[in-house]
Amino acid sequence: MPEMTTYDHGVPSWVDIGAPDREAAVRFYSELFGWDAQDLGEESGHYTMVSKGGKLIAGISGATDPGPPRWTTYVNVDDVDDVAKRAESSGGTVVVAPMDVMSEGRMAIFADTTGAVIAAWQPAHHTGAQLVNEPGALIWNELNTSDMAKSKAFYSAVFGWGWGGAEAYAEAQVNGRTVLGVMPRPDTIPAEVPDHWLVYFGSADVDADTERAKALGATPVAGPMDVAGSGRFSVLVDPQGAAFALYQPAQG
User: Fold this and answer.
1) 16 vs 68, which has greater pLDDT?
2) Residue 108: beta bridge partners?
3) Are residues 118 and 150 part of one domain?
4) Does any domain span residue 5?
5) Do 133 and 140 touch, CB atoms closer than 8 A?
6) Are 105 and 121 in contact (CB under 8 A)?
7) Distance between CA atoms of 48 and 62, rounded to whole angstroms?
């Protein structure tokens, strides 16, 4: 079981979603993934931690900005103030300036040079997801961008990412290890949808989980389909309009 207690600088460590109806989002994802939920109370704005087998997976909160809800990827960093300055000096826009989150850590949110929103997390008590790469847990993060070269340059400057993969699918690397993917946005994405980060959750059976998500009110927008030599995935939109993906790694 891939349990995590620390993350290197530049590695995605947490995801959360702000939904117009927080309680409905908790019900949907808990039924889909078998999550247990803990409302942290009024002091936190009823931020809800979800877990599986007692290990933290992700967060669910009420919506804090207008527009459709979205899953936000948080990248672990050593110094969130420095990262925010790098984001701004590299052409990004700081959406939420560096701020303390009670005693849990320090965060910032910014939009990159093509408009995709991402967050940085400097941990204190909260180090991030305690379980990854399992069914019902975070397994992958992927940027859909309208300008691959611009995005790669931005994130190299901000997080220090190296690059592998291919021209059609770049792989960000930290200390020589692939940590996430970047791809040109598909033509099937409507023009009004901005560039964005997509969060993938692990699945033991993508086809069955896709059908379960549909029965709970989600809308499939891609797949299920195979990725040669890698696995099988699907992309869905939850009942409140947030996109997410399921991924089943190939055996072996």
Assistant:
1) 16
2) 120
3) no
4) no
5) no
6) yes
7) 9
In this prediction, residue 44 carries a pLDDT of: 75
Question: 171 and 162 in contact (C-beta within 8 Å)?
Answer: no
Mean pLDDT, range 17-45, rounded to an integer: 93
Domain that holds residue 216: 139-249
Q: Is the peptide bond before 224 cis (omega within 30 degrees of 0)?
A: yes
pLDDT tens string 94-108: 999 999 998 999 999
Residues 6+ apart with CB under 8 A from 182: 142, 143, 145, 148, 151, 152, 155, 165, 169, 170, 171, 172
% of the chain with per-residue pLDDT over 90 = 85
Instruction: Provide the 10 A C-beta neighbour count for residue 15.
Output: 22
Same domain, 243 and 189: yes
Indicate the residue type of 1.
M
Q: Distance between CA 172 and CA 170 in Å, rounded?
A: 7
Predicted TM-score (pTM) of this structure: 0.95
Give the domain-ending residue among 123, 150, 179. 123
Amino acid (1-letter code) at residue 223 = G
